[in-house]
Design goal:
Oligomer: single chain
Structural class: alpha+beta
Bound molecules: adenosine monophosphate, glycine
Number of strands: 23
CATH topology of the domain at 2-99: Rossmann fold
CATH class of the domain at 2-99: Alpha Beta
Largest sheet: 6 strands, antiparallel
């Protein structure tokens, strides 16, 4: 089977790494890929939202399956594009169709979906510029902190959590009236603040059946002790120690089952990953958000723990027989620590040479913002690499990641030294 992975991050290197291990995969392509995928697959210089260029590549290389990494192409309808094209409709796509991708593409859509299917989440109301005054009144009726969410995709920056009522009103106006997040904030969801500890649950579905992957927790803030600006993720661990069997059962019964049933009832075709961002409030799980893809860097700890052939799983998803698949999971813990460019998540320099990768032993380095250049590897993004290790405990795994990081160097390299500090 010839397979194309769309994307260029650590998540996509991990997909490629896992797919390349499958005897079912005969050729592997990644578009656009990075220095890590270049070693195990053929990189294609194509943007993930350039559907015409993707079509040309799929026809040229006779690709049988496309695995979509990031949300943008899904929300823009890449799956539908394939289904509506005579020359492409035989190709299997891993990733939901546009209508279902709205679970990530629109917070309001996701909230309405949860409310329709009785899925526990924060109470909310949504507003647009014409209902700004009602928005102010709703804020006045809530206790701080106030949670304001741009409805559309805002590159992970569209959620504001504000303590002061007047500031919350000012921000609401700036989002709705002054287009703070462009079109993405033409609608804003205001919701109840939930106080608790977060974790991520990953579900595979063929639209009818589902399988739950190992859970994970990511560390989003740039600073140690979970302080400072939000990032795409500075590290992750799997499994999540506080997710007891009883709590996981609640997640499955109260959230996963109604989500998959809801997709069917609402006629939302879904073949791919559902990433459910959860918060544990008291003893109960509540949904913070849906994503229609895998998490990054969570993928870098979830897929290394999956022992089952990923291509066989994908094949069963496209044939709607996921119920016949058994997932085997490695009992060991996996942890990852992300190396970032100095300055990230604000402005940072690129083009720094990365050295020492050959000295890494007993960890897996997944490349993200890194590209091959004249026989060397250079930084090309904010999150540069994720160093993943296994251990009998989280601390054993983390120790290996941190030891190996000592060998890796690039100018202004930064990373969090406290991943897993709260476990
Ligand atoms: P989202 O993009 O919806 O995942 O939100 C980004 C982050 O904001 C989440 O990971 C949470 O840390 C936080 N957050 C979102 N919604 C809430 C809420 N209702 N209560 C508390 N924290 C929230
Ligand atoms: N690590 C969070 C995300 O992928 O959205």
């Amino acid at each position: 089977m010839k397979i194309l992975v769309l994307g260029s991050g650590g998540r996509e290197h991990t997909f490629a790494w896992k797919i390349a291990q499958s005897p079912l995969c005969t050729s592997l392509f990644v578009a656009p890929g990075n220095s890590g995928t270049a070693d195990i697959a053929q990189n294609l210089d194509i943007k993930v939202t350039d559907f015409q260029a993707i079509k040309n590549a799929v026809l040229t290389h006779e690709i049988d399956m496309v695995v979509v990494g990031p949300e943008d192409p899904l929300v823009q309808g890449v799956h539908d594009f394939f289904l509506n094209d005579e020359a492409l409709k035989h190709v299997s796509i891993i990733g939901p169709q546009k209508a279902a991708a709205e679970l990530e593409g629109s917070k309001e859509f996701a909230k309405a979906f949860m409310s329709r299917h009785n899925i526990p989440t924060a109470a909310y109301q949504s507003f647009d510029a014409s209902s700004l005054m009602e928005g102010y009144s709703f804020l006045e009726s809530l206790n701080p902190p106030y949670v304001l969410k741009a409805d559309g995709l805002a590159a992970g920056k569209g959620v504001l959590i504000i303590n002061d009522l007047d500031e919350a009103k000012k921000e609401l106006k700036s989002m709705l009236v002054d287009a703070k997040f462009g079109n993405a904030s033409s609608k804003v969801v205001i919701e109840e603040f939930l106080d608790g500890i977060e974790l991520s649950c990953f579900v595979l579905t063929d639209g009818k059946h589902y399988k739950i992957l190992p859970n994970a927790k990511d560390y989003k803030r740039i600073g140690e002790g979970d302080t400072g600006l939000n990032t795409g993720g500075m590290g992750a661990v799997s499994p999540v120690p506080f997710a007891t069997e009883e709590f996981l059962n609640k997640i499955e019964e109260q959230i996963v089952k109604p989500t998959i049933n809801g997709l069917q009832k609402d006629n939302l075709p879904y073949k791919g990953f559902v990433f459910i961002g959860l918060i544990k409030v008291g003893d109960d799980p509540k949904v913070i958000e849906y994503n229609v893809r895998m998490g990054d860097p969570e993928t870098e700890v979830v897929l290394p723990r999956l022992k089952t052939d990923l291509v066989a799983i994908f094949k069963s998803i496209s044939e709607e027989r996921l119920d016949g698949v058994q997932l085997d999971v490695d009992d060991r813990a996996a942890t990852t620590v992300v190396l970032v460019s100095g300055g990230y998540p604000e402005s940072y320099e690129k083009g720094k040479e990365i050295s020492g990768l050959d000295k890494v032993k007993d960890s897996i380095v997944f490349h993200a913002g890194a590209i091959p250049k004249n026989g060397k590897i250079e930084t090309s993004g904010g999150r540069v690499m994720a160093v993943t290790s296994y251990g009998n405990t989280h601390s054993e795994a983390l120790k290996k990641s941190y030891q190996n990081i000592q060998h890796i160097h690039f100018d202004k390299m930064n990373y969090r030294k406290d991943i897993g500090f709260d476990l």
